[in-house]
Automatic annotation (TrEMBL):
Name listed for the protein in its UniProt record: Phage shock protein A, PspA
The keyword Coiled coil is assigned to this record: yes
This protein's record includes keyword Coiled coil: yes
Compositional bias (Polar residues): 225-244
TM region positions: none
Signal peptide annotation: none
InterPro entries associated with the record: PspA_VIPP1
Similarity comment: family membership: Belongs to the PspA/Vipp/IM30 family.
Length: 259
């Protein structure tokens, strides 16, 4: 194999590969339908020309046939008048027109067959174009769906699934930590509230006892645990007793403050 043959084959192979890669199904189908419609236009023009030629041939055939009949009648007329020479001339004219009419008749039959075949081809091409349009629309829809699915798959492939799932796991862990902190804060707030109420409850007992003591002191009643004595005139003993009470009251206040 020569060098030029090999080079030609390589060039043709590369060109075919480039053409195959450049072919867009939607555009190729659209162009194919356009080409078929152009063929349809040309075929219609051919049918129209053939029909026109058929009409002209038919007219010429009818004219020649009419002339042949006319000269035949003239030949009969001349013969009936006894003019044989004139009748012979009329028959000669009739023969010329009859031969022309016979040729035109054969031509007309061929043209009629051609026109009928062209009409059948025209109907077949119109049917094929209609079918091609339907198929083109279907194939274009499938091509668009395939491209959309391919783009979707590429998009999904570009998404880092592992990193995305890792992000979800990290965010879930953060949410769990936030929930735990919120629960802990709630528990701490609840325990502090309970402590405050317990302090208030214990403080109320002391206040009640303090009020009772004040009432006993102001009313001159005996303190719990002490014996009842007759009232004595105010003297040094009374003063010392009041000082002891104040001291005890002060001691109680200090105890309350230390709570």
């Amino acid at each position: 194999m020569g060098l030029f043959d090999r080079l030609s084959r390589v060039v043709r192979a590369n060109l075919n590969d480039l053409v195959s890669k450049a072919e867009d199904p939607e555009k190729v189908l659209e162009q194919a339908v356009i080409d078929m419609q152009e063929d349809l236009v040309q075929l219609r023009q051919a049918v129209a020309r053939s029909i026109a030629e058929q009409k002209r041939s038919e007219q010429q055939y009818n004219q020649n046939q009419t002339e042949a009949n006319k000269w035949e009648q003239r030949a009969k007329l001349a013969l009936s008048k006894g003019d044989e020479a004139l009748a012979r001339e009329a028959l000669t004219r009739k023969k010329s027109f009859s031969e022309t009419a016979a040729v035109l008749k054969q031509q007309l039959e061929q043209q009629s067959a051609t026109v009928d075949q062209l009409k059948r081809n025209l109907v077949a091409l119109e049917s094929k174009i209609s079918e091609a349009k339907t198929k083109k629309n279907m194939l274009q829809a499938r091509s668009k769906a395939a491209k959309a699915n391919e783009d979707l798959q590429k998009t999904l492939g570009n998404i880092g699934t592992s990193s995305a799932m890792g992000a979800f796991e990290r965010m879930e862990q953060k949410v769990l930590e936030a929930e735990a902190r919120s629960q802990a804060v709630g528990e701490l707030a609840g325990s502090g509230l309970e402590d405050q109420f317990r302090m208030l409850e214990s403080g109320s007992d002391v206040d009640d006892e303090l009020a009772l003591l004040k009432a006993q002191v102001q009313g001159g009643g005996a303190l719990p645990g002490s014996t009842t004595t007759n009232a004595l005139p105010e003297s040094k003993s009374t003063t010392s007793s009041n000082s002891a009470v104040d001291a005890e009251l002060e001691d109680l206040r200090r105890q309350i403050d230390n709570l």
